[in-house]
Write a structure and sequence with these properties.
The chain is α+β, with helices and mostly antiparallel strands and about 500 residues long. The chain is built from 19 helices and nine strands. Strand 5 and strand 6 form a beta hairpin. The mean pLDDT is about 85.
């Protein structure tokens, strides 16, 4: 063996030794910091159940021992937060250490992935400041008539269906309703998925959530995001990205050429793109496309699954359903039967139903953060290095019997003003909290209010021969959605 071969062999041995040393250190990450951790990683490899079940087990096992516990996902250490005061620090008090979600995006090769949910640092702060004014209560009131029109179209369609069939699959119908609502508000396009269930918008929504993902690719993006970007790895499926970029481009061109104004989300974004008063307030075409995309994808799925779970619980709890229906009718009587913005905002029991649904079935059941700098966990000696993944197990916390007694019971009265005041303010976090709270929460809540109010006003829901009880979570969808769909008997009132 010549000197060069010996040298290469020595380098290979050194690299392997170093790699083994780093791997061994990585697996001792939590033990070295005196943080209780899950040594058995096999459970997290079980893909037959939804990840929230794993996190609920961790929360139950380790809660009270320490403010957080550790797990390993492949070779990535993850901190699972167990203490509500620590959650408050992460989301608000010490937000400067936890600005980023750690969600992969590739602005260069996959511009539509660089949206508010995934962006980090200064880029996120600047864009959030520009976009926030489009989601004020005043802007929601402006979009309200468009949302109600989509809701009435949905109600009329259901009226026709009920005359032909007594039992309907509601999950798909609700997804079509939210697709139509957001398609109109975000793009100014009449998707009409009620009459055309295979419309391109609906198909692209399905592809985003239902298409199989590569576990190896996802792991690579999580462990080495910078290398993944360097190699041009994309997050969004090419056909989905091309579709939304094309729709946004065509919409902007048409409106500018024809002077069209619709008082919707797209109008507000176009106005910012053409803002001559301040260059810092302008947004680019790619930024518009990315925001319109995430607004559509996040809005239609989260709102439709929330309403799906609400109808499931209302079908099982007829007394709650009747109380909700009475609330809608009493408010409408005060407003001459008109489902006005003022009327919908007075339906407090509908809000309680939605909030209790979001407690039992938070659409985003785990919130993510990463440390942007070294962070000492308050009242401990634990230091989390920069880049540490942090997960907030929202679903597990909202099923903690010490916080919400009898947590499996569906009880909207948990959300009266009096009951809410008794709880820790960070015990209910379906939208997150602090500077990175969900920017579209007003829109999502309004969409769910309108949908449920119109449905309860005209229809009664109950379980039937095709109903699956209990419903299981779809394990391949991070959003909490029912695995078997939702079949219910629907009667016209």
């Amino acid at each position: 063996m010549d000197i060069m071969q010996q040298l290469l062999a020595l380098i290979a041995v050194l690299l392997l030794t170093y790699g083994f040393y780093r791997l061994r250190r990585q697996f001792r990450f939590w033990a070295d910091r005196n943080v209780p951790y899950l040594s058995n990683k096999i459970g997290f490899m079980d893909k037959s159940i939804h990840p929230v079940e794993h996190f609920r087990t961790c929360y139950t096992q380790f809660k009270g021992q320490y403010p957080l516990m550790g797990i390993m996902m492949i070779v990535k250490p993850i901190a699972v937060v167990l203490d509500l005061e620590l959650i408050k620090c992460i989301l608000v008090k010490d937000f400067q250490h936890f600005q980023n979600r750690g969600v992969y995006y590739n602005e260069k090769d996959d511009p539509i992935s660089a949206h508010l949910f995934s962006l980090e640092g200064a880029k996120w702060r600047n864009l959030r400041a520009k976009i926030s004014p489009t989601f004020t209560s005043g802007k929601m009131k402006m979009m309200y008539p468009t949302m109600v029109a989509a809701g009435k179209q949905f109600s009329d369609y259901l009226d026709d269906k009920v005359s032909q069939e007594s039992e309907l699959e509601m999950k798909d119908l609700l997804s079509r309703f939210t697709t139509d609502t957001i398609g109109t508000c975000a793009f100014g396009i009449e998707c009409n998925t009620m009459r055309e269930p295979n419309s391109t918008f609906r198909e692209m929504g399905r592809k985003h959530f239902e298409a199989p993902r590569s576990a190896l690719k996802d792991a690579f993006k999580m462990i080495s995001p910078n290398l993944a970007r360097f190699l041009g790895v994309k997050e969004i499926r090419p056909e989905v990205s091309e579709f939304f970029m094309g729709v946004v481009r065509d919409t902007i061109d048409y409106r500018l050429k024809n002077g069209v104004r619709r008082n919707d989300f797209m109008d507000l974004l176009i106005a910012m793109m053409n803002d001559d008063s301040s260059e810092s307030d302008r947004i680019t075409f790619n930024e518009i496309a990315a925001q319109a995309y995430v607004f559509f994808i996040a809005g239609f799925e989260t709102s439709s699954t929330t309403m799906t779970w609400a109808l499931y619980e209302l079908a099982l709890n007829q007394d709650v359903q009747e109380k909700g229906r009475s609330c809608v009718r009493e408010v409408l009587e005060k407003h001459n039967g008109v489902m006005s913005y003022e009327a919908i905002m007075q339906m407090t029991y509908i809000d309680q139903i939605i909030n209790e649904t979001l407690r039992k079935y938070p659409p985003v059941p785990i919130h993510f953060r990463t440390t942007s700098s070294e962070y000492r966990v308050p009242d401990t000696d634990t230091l989390l290095p920069a880049g540490t993944f942090v997960m907030l197990p929202v679903h597990a916390i909202q099923h903690d019997a010490e916080i919400f007694p009898d947590p499996e019971k569906f009880d909207p009265d948990r959300f009266t003003a009096e009951e809410v005041s008794k709880r820790h303010p960070y015990a209910w976090l379906p939208f997150g909290e602090g500077p990175r709270i969900c920017i579209g929460l007003r829109f999502g809540m309004m969409q769910a209010r309108i949908g449920l109010a119109l449905l309860l006003k005209s229809f009664r829901f109950s379980t039937g021969p095709k109903s699956t009880i209990p419903l299981e979570f779809e394990p391949t969808n991070f959003i909490l959605s029912p695995k078997q769909g939702l079949w219910l008997k629907v009667e016209k009132i």
